[in-house]
């Protein structure tokens, strides 16, 4: 049986890593976030972050609708999933 940890978070944005959108690295995504913030186009969305040994999931707090899921081997990938400053 897998254990799932759940946290209330304020989600800012999700960016697809896509060279055609000039987002190839985490730093590129941060630059885009800073640009959007400078134009007052950033707001937070209250979400539930669920983490277990198979996936990271973001769900809307009010509707419980899945907004994002990322299936990974978390033991080897977690440093690349999030960047907090």
TrEMBL record:
Domain PTB: 6-64
Any Pfam family hit: PTB
Listed GO CC annotations: ruffle membrane; vesicle
One GO BP annotation of this record: Rho protein signal transduction
Any one GO molecular-function label of the UniProt entry: actin binding
PANTHER family: EPIDERMAL GROWTH FACTOR RECEPTOR KINASE SUBSTRATE 8-LIKE PROTEIN 2, EPIDERMAL GROWTH FACTOR RECEPTOR KINASE SUBSTRATE EPS8-RELATED PROTEIN
Name of the protein this chain belongs to: PTB domain-containing protein
